[in-house]
DNA sequence: ATCCAATATTTGGAAGTTAAAATAGTTTCC
DNA sequence: GGAAACTATTTTAACTTCCAAATATTGGAT
């Protein structure tokens, strides 16, 4: 079992002990006052990449991408299983066109239905079907079992991440201070 | 100045005080032992989305996407300004096909050159041009000025994020414990 | 010398993203 | 009652990413 440098996208092995620490060092030489920000941003990007690839690997056997899973879960979590397209975009923080796209694919698979709202005919209502509910439940169980790709991480460490990143969301104005 | 719910993709305003806290509550009801992991992962995804959109806004006037910037910066940071395509993929942690793609675009704009390696004819060497170097320098200055999208965040908070996320990278096996 | 397994890159295709324009329906306000 | 302004969704087009398959090239084993 050699320590080869393997495939390198999803689950990867860099050729430097810690590429981010290395970049931080490089930055410190020329722009010391910005090195911490650079490293934080790079860390977020890299963590997202790692987590996304693990999560999509868990979801793949169920035929879902992360985007599709999020949409399905959102619907499954509402009492009626129905939500206007626009509302979904807001909740998921994605572009309306992305909602159209994802829901379109889910619809073709019979996991959600689509119908114009009786109240406002501009509005299109997406509704999760029983099959969609089953799949959402199934996929959620799989993700939980897999600890969302970070099962090995103690819960306290996970909570620290949430807390540390709340500062970003506040700083960017998504959240009120709190 | 009303508190309207605005555009909602790039820089967004959710319709709940803190959507992640809300999701954590929901999760706690049914899967309490996984709620922290779910929240951490969701936080990373959301932070990445927010930061990426701010960073791309800074880079846009310079005609670069974040991916293009990273590739250019990587080349600019090597002494010779030259790297094999494969090596770039490893360093940037992206799929080889993505490297082909990005370098192709940079090449068309005269920011990098491409040439087969004299040593190994399977290998293609990408080299940054003087114009590429200038642009990289310029874009880096812009990013620094913008504090990488989190100028408002104190450096200590930024460092906390890097530290907290190092745990993820370790847990996933990208990094040795340290 | 040759064959075969590994390596490096590119191509083609599915998915996702965004911005901008098109379409349709609703509301507001004279 | 009708024009103008606004809102919701979809379409289109341009990018980006990844995967899987194809194409070259190399290097080691026979």
UniProtKB/TrEMBL annotation, chains A, B:
Keywords: DNA-binding, Transcription, Transcription regulation. It comes from Actinomadura napierensis. It comes from the Bacteria. Residues 37-170 form the HTH marR-type domain. Pfam families: MarR (PF01047). This is MarR family transcriptional regulator. The keyword Transcription regulation applies. The keyword S-adenosyl-L-methionine does not apply.
């Amino acid at each position: 079992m050699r320590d080869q440098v393997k495939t390198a996208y999803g689950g990867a092995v860099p050729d430097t002990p810690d590429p981010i620490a290395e970049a931080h060092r490089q930055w410190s030489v020329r722009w010391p006052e910005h090195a911490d920000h650079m490293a934080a941003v790079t860390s977020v990007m890299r963590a997202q990449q790692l987590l996304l690839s693990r999560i999509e690997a868990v979801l793949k056997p169920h035929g879902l991408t992360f985007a599709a899973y999020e949409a399905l879960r959102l619907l499954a979590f509402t009492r009626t299983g129905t939500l206007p397209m626009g509302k979904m975009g807001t909740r998921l923080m994605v572009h309306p066109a992305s909602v159209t796209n994802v829901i379109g694919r889910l619809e073709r698979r019979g996991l959600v239905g689509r119908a114009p709202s009786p109240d406002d005919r501009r509005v299109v209502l997406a509704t999760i079907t029983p099959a969609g509910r089953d799949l959402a439940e199934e996929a959620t169980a799989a993700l939980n079992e897999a600890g969302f790709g970070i099962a090995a991480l103690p819960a306290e460490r996970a909570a620290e991440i949430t807390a540390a990143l709340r500062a970003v969301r506040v700083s960017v104005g998504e959240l009120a201070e709190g």
